[in-house]
Specification:
By secondary structure, this protein is mostly helical. The protein is built from 16 helices and no strands.
């Protein structure tokens, strides 16, 4: 399930796939339903592989995964602040030379005095999460230095530093582009993040895109009260995630029997584990969440299969789910299942 971080096409493909092109006014949380489904799929994969011992442990793993994504969101902000801090230190060192040049004494301060960055630095919510997640990059000086060196020769930095207009919107545009146009291509970053948390390995670009969108929504009037994205849009999203995870695991046997019934011309033992998990989740979602339109659920799992499975597998899942439509009535219930309410 791991993707190549150095492939620029994969960056854009993943952004679009998980819904990063959602309109700003529709953005309510850092993790949307599609990304939640992916996290659930990965958690079930871990459970089936024996990495966790119980459903309770699987639930903890899922919630930890969501929390780690949110932590990464703020860690990358802290990373930007550390790069600014390093830039300030470079300016002071140059000013204190024995024989400073005119440029040393009159540096371009646009980056270190960026209004949006200063607003973020003093924002109450950021500093609350900075303390909660114990964000610190004191032990990553080489990473900060490499990112700074790469940044100052980048097109977005040169364009920003030499622009005729110097205002809040220009500052905001630069910070947004830092997360979406520059940071994803800093190869040294990924190995460092992977060492900090295994959860960060597969979703860094997605979190960067959410940061870019967060920056775009900042206004000069917000001051220290910048609104950051919460991990869940609401309690309903958290309930959706836990119920879908638990039901998919608890009813694994019956759901797999249903899958085998509708795939008689396909050797069930040859169905890839990820494909089987996705189909179990599709059945569970249609059964447990009557408020989600049938076609929406089917389309979601077909799209996830296209991204995480081979073309042959995604075509198989598409065909099987399409055949299973006959087992669904208009209220989204599976006609051969009894409705079961899970205790959350």
């Amino acid at each position: 399930m791991e993707k190549n971080k150095s492939d620029a096409k994969n960056h854009q493909r993943f952004f679009t796939f998980v819904g990063c092109n959602v309109k700003l006014r529709s953005l309510k949380s850092m993790i949307n339903r599609r990304f939640l489904r992916i996290k659930i799929m990965q958690t079930i994969f871990s459970y089936n592989s024996g990495a966790v011992d119980s459903i309770k442990e699987a639930e903890k793993l899922l919630l930890q995964s969501v929390t780690e994504s949110h932590k990464l969101y703020f860690y990358l902000i802290e990373l930007l602040l550390e790069v600014v801090k390093y830039a300030n230190q470079k300016i002071e060192i140059a000013r204190n030379k024995k024989i400073p040049t005119y440029e040393d004494l009159n540096p371009n301060l646009r980056f270190v005095k960026n209004r949006v960055i200063q607003q973020i630095k003093t924002s109450e919510e950021f500093n609350k999460y900075r303390k909660k997640y114990k964000l610190a990059l004191d032990d990553k000086p080489e990473l900060i230095k490499k990112i700074y060196i790469q940044l100052i020769v980048s097109p977005i930095y040169k364009e920003y530093m030499s622009a005729d207009i110097d205002d809040f919107e220009q500052d905001k545009n630069f910070v947004s582009r830092f997360f979406i146009k520059f940071l994803p291509y800093c190869d040294d970053l990924y190995s460092v993040l992977e060492e900090i948390s295994v959860f960060w390995n597969d979703e860094t670009e997605f979190v960067m895109s959410m940061l870019s969108k967060t920056i775009k929504k900042i206004t000069i009037t917000e001051g220290i009260y910048i609104r950051y994205l919460p991990p869940f849009a609401s309690y309903d999203d958290e309930r959706f995630a836990l119920l879908l995870l638990r039901d998919s695991i608890e009813n694994k046997v019956s759901y797999q029997e249903t899958i085998k019934e509708f795939s008689k011309n396909w050797d069930a033992d040859r169905i890839a584990r990820t494909d089987m998990i996705l189909m179990q989740m599709a059945i569970s979602e249609i059964k447990q969440f009557e408020n989600i339109p049938l076609q929406v659920s089917l389309n979601e799992y077909i799209e996830i299969a296209k991204f995480y499975s081979t073309a042959k597998s995604s075509n198989f899942i598409n065909g099987l789910l399409d055949r299973m439509k006959s087992g669904f009535d208009l209220s989204n219930k599976l006609s051969y299942f009894d409705k079961k309410e899970l205790d959350l």
